[in-house]
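Hey L., structure's done. Input below.
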Amino acid sequence: MSRDDRPGAAIRQFARDVRFGMRLNLKSWGFVAAALVIIALGVSAVTAIVTVVYGVMLRPLPYPAPERLVSVRSALPAQPATALVNVADYREWRNANHVFDEMALVRDLANFNLTSESGEPERVLAARVTASLFRVLGTRPLYGSTFTDDAERRGNEDVVVLSYGLWRRRFASDPSIVGRTIRLSGVAYTVVGVMPASFSYPTAAFQLWVPLTINPAELSRAVGGFGYTCIARLRPGISIEQARREMTALARRVAATHSAKDSAPDAVLVSLLDDVIRSVRPTLLLLLGAVCCLLLIACLNVATLFSARAARRASEFAIRLALGASRARIVSQAFAEVLPIVVIGGVLGVASASWAVRAFVAAAPPGLARIESIEINTQVLVAALAAVCLTAVAATLLPATEAWSADFRRATQDRSRSATSGIRHRRIRSVMVATQVAVAVPLLVGSGVLVRSFVRLSEVDPGIKPDHVLSLLLAVPRSKYPGDQPVAAFETRLLDAVRSLPGVNAAGMVNRLPFSGYEQSGAVEVENPAGEPAVVDVDVRPVTTGYFEALGIPLERGRSFTIHDDSAARRVVIVDERLARMAWPRANPIGKRLREPNDEWLEVVGVVGHVRHQGFAVDPRPQVYWSYLQKPQDRMALVVRGHGEATALVTPVLQAIRSVDPDQPAYDVRPMDEVLRRSTTQRRMTLALLLAFALSAVLLASVGIYALVAFAVSQRLREFGIRIALGASPSDVARLVVSDGATLACLNIAIGIGAALLLADVMRSLVFETNPRDVVSLASATLLVLAVATAASYLPARRAASVDPAVTLRAD
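Output:
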């Protein structure tokens, strides 16, 4: 048996080819380094973004049969497909439907102060849920049980289910906690169960679940309000479309028997996963598209580099064929030379992606859906492997074709005929470089549009002055301070303690902090002496004395609230300038009156500046402020303005709070300017990532242009020598080379601009007061790519200009 016929001979031969390829690559370390960087960049970007997209959008929810979970919403005329549901509709839908195994209702905002003898007071986020929630989600507790339907009745609601994280952190993973009592906002609750680590609902931030007790007035529709989240589990064999048809008909039957304001005229069903990710889907799809473009450019770039190297070795391949090597053997060796570079680049890419994912999670905007699901797992590694394989194919295909088509006779012909014979491969390389430029341009235009949008957003006046202001949140326990007046008295004492601190200029409270993402709206009737009151939808917020001064909200007319605006005084309000212009456009608003529907009239005593409570990009409603002494709230945000850095106030302010009540925790303590920055985190992160992808794409395209022009120059040295010998100056030759590179770029910039214009509408929901077809962004992208192409052509042009005709012609 010959050596080549023994078992494993092919593998041993391939291993020798790999070793030979590694030795060859070590002689061209600059080429290898460039290829490694390009491959690692493409694989890293794809792996990182696919990790995020899979974790947020594609990974199944951590519940049994998650595809059967749906979100049920009300479709109201003013808020189609976005409204929550009311209790009465939920009860009738639950009793009459034939498509759900079970339905559940959730009120997902319940702050509790957790106190114990062994630890500091702590604020925990809880959800008030019906007992059916755990049946809908199909998750059993790790210890104990969940609460029963009886717990939803008033008087039975003092039971709680703990999250796994809270159980481990606060109760040292003690299973005997089940059956014991804990104090939440001063009330004793019995722990009935602990959920497993995989369970989180509505988000991973929620640490407790307590029974949702229903107000009988809501069931009888005496009190309305669409403020509840409803989820359901489909029966086996029922599709979402079938359930949607039945629920639409059911909602219309229910609505027909009640007034429009008491019942939703339609029901909207979407999968629970789609409902959870609806706010981040456009951004993630944009980033996924951008990173796929970057991978395409990286693959084309690697293919161009390896193709150019293979073209230089055409004579070597031809001679080896003439000496008896088979074409398959040469192709195998070409692949073996590429394989180590691709594998090492892929490993480096996955390793850097792991770091990038951790950095993304750490810097992710607060409240990002399913952030706990973002991790590199088997599915992501399969995607990374696919990216590596795609890169390997791109890097190998043209070199293999070059090796397979090698011909000894053609390789030994004179240069002119040899150059002519390779025109097909040069055209392929030109097309690849052109594609890189055409793909890079839309990325640049998109990032330019986002930059312009963010600049416009940053120019928006928020209505407050956040510098030197500390903010924090408080949840005052009603069990400890029963009734509105004890709550108001506690908040007054707390404000007095904070205002007495050295370095404090002003302090005040509001029930919803501006730019925190929460809204509190309602209708008010503006008095109209000539007819019926005009109804206006407004943002309503109770505030304390000193609030406007602490946030720098200007007082335009009248006065601010005082300590005399209490429950014994006439009821007064302060309105913002927008409502003043809308309601009393040609009159002085001071002394005018408004009211909540069917309530007593309130006198306007002041006008303040308008504040963008919902964020820089959202400005929905005019605003009305109540005096907190006349409308106390147990959830308040404290804002404190000081002389210097806001962080210097943290310790003294927290000590002042504990001096008033040692059991009162404060949470979300941060400077106000950080609150404003957090409101734009998602936009800034999207901009940063897209800009990074775009600049990387341009850099890779410039490498491709450089490689193509440099290769073309090396093939045309004889031509340049003749030109110079016939009288052309070196600068003429340099201009010729640079103009070739610029011409290549210009043709494909036009294609890229066309693609950017076609894809512009994809970004419409992501920009603020900016045209997705912004002319400045289009022009900037054009000039940048043209400048980069010119710069990439400069070094090859210098080589062409330095050709010595005598040396070139003698060598020929």
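The longest strand covers residues 100-116. Residues 721 and 804 are 6 Å apart (CA to CA).

-- N.
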